[in-house]
Amino acid sequence: MASLQTLLETGEAIPHGACMGWRSELISLHVVSDVIIAASYLSIPIVLAVFVSRRPDMMFGWVAWAFAIFLVACGLAHLLDIWTMWYPHFAAEGLAKALTAVTSLATAIVLWPLLPKALKIPSADELRHAVEALRLQIRERDLALKALEREREERRRAEDMLRQAQKMEAIGQLTAGIAHDFNNLMTAVIGNLERARRLLPQDGSRQLARAIRGAALGAERAGVLTHRLLAFGCRQPLAPNVMNVNDVLEHLADTLRRTLGGTIRVVSNLTFDLWPTKVDADALESAILNLAVNARDAMPEGGNLVITTRNVAAGDGLIAELGLAAGDYIEIAVADTGIGMSEEVASRAFEPFFTTKPLGEGSGLGLSQAYGFAVQSDGTAVLDSTPGEGTTVKLYLPRAQVAATPVAARSFAPGLLTNAAACP
């Protein structure tokens, strides 16, 4: 305590102003400079304190506090320089400088070990590049997620197609078996009816003769039904020939224009260089007629029936999507502008005997016959329908590698369209 009192005694000391001869210009120069420096030193710690308090996540925040203490000590030293201009309290000034020395030394000591860590902090350019790299990774991840979602969707569609194919195969096998047995029974019925007709005396009962003819007509219709069931089950004997189906479709389109009625406009959009295919012409005509009847029934107020053909190359992704064997195919599309089908109805449209029409107005075998014909011809059939917009049925048939032979034109009676089986 005595040492501190001795240190603070001014004794013979004289203020700094006396050393300057009390020249006002020199005193003013020092005082103004010290005031500005002190104000700056004391304001900077305030800025640092506000910044660190609002950014607690900042690295090395404690360094800012060390700088703040150092700057406060420097500002205090400059204020004491102003004071000693008139009062010789040099001990207080020395103590302020000692405090400044201690804080500056401590700050310097902690800064040097901190330098390697500070140099490892990424620069603005490095951070910018890192952000761009992160954005690229996020974009790649999003693309990968979209690709994964597409793959899942494709796998789901493939599984649905596989289940549908398995279901249709099972229904086809069951239907074909029943149709085969039914056909054998109807053969016996028709044979016995024919025998009964022959054994009937010439002057026999006319009512009995009419009954036999009616029974025979019903048996023949049952035979036609059996024929269509066998077509769906891929058990119907076919006589395929290599041909250009455009020949068949052109003649068939002319017949449809004459028989479908004036309210339905038949449009043919056939590819000029369509590839040949090997199919049964009669089965193809039957399939297209059934599709045309379905289109007519779906357009009670009239509309457009468009028949289109095109080539589908082996590299087209549609081939794999449909589960067809690799190779070239032709596509026959029959589209209408009718009432369309719901998704539930469309999923069952190829099933035999499935129909949405009232009892007695449709057998539900038209689409199943077209499907069976396409599958038995080593192709397939697909249906695309939207309620209120129409339905499109597409038949895919494999390309034949030999030249096609012309198909002779044939005429079709209007009764074919009247008696054709209708589907949903």
TrEMBL record:
Its EC number is 2.7.13.3. Residues 131-168 form a coiled coil. InterPro entries: ETR1_N (IPR058544), HATPase_C_sf (IPR036890), HATPase_dom (IPR003594), His_kinase_dom (IPR005467), HisK_dim/P_dom (IPR003661), HisK_dim/P_sf (IPR036097), Sig_transdc_His_kin-like_C (IPR004358). This is histidine kinase. PANTHER family: HISTIDINE KINASE (PTHR43065:SF49), SENSOR HISTIDINE KINASE (PTHR43065). It is an enzyme of class 2 (transferase). It comes from the Bacteria. Residues 177-401 form the Histidine kinase domain. It comes from Rhodoplanes azumiensis. GO terms for molecular function: ATP binding. Keywords: ATP-binding, Coiled coil, Membrane, Nucleotide-binding, Phosphoprotein, Transmembrane, Transmembrane helix. Pfam families: ETR1_N, HATPase_c. The keyword Nucleotide-binding applies. The chain crosses the membrane at residues 31-52, 59-83. It catalyses: ATP + protein L-histidine = ADP + protein N-phospho-L-histidine.
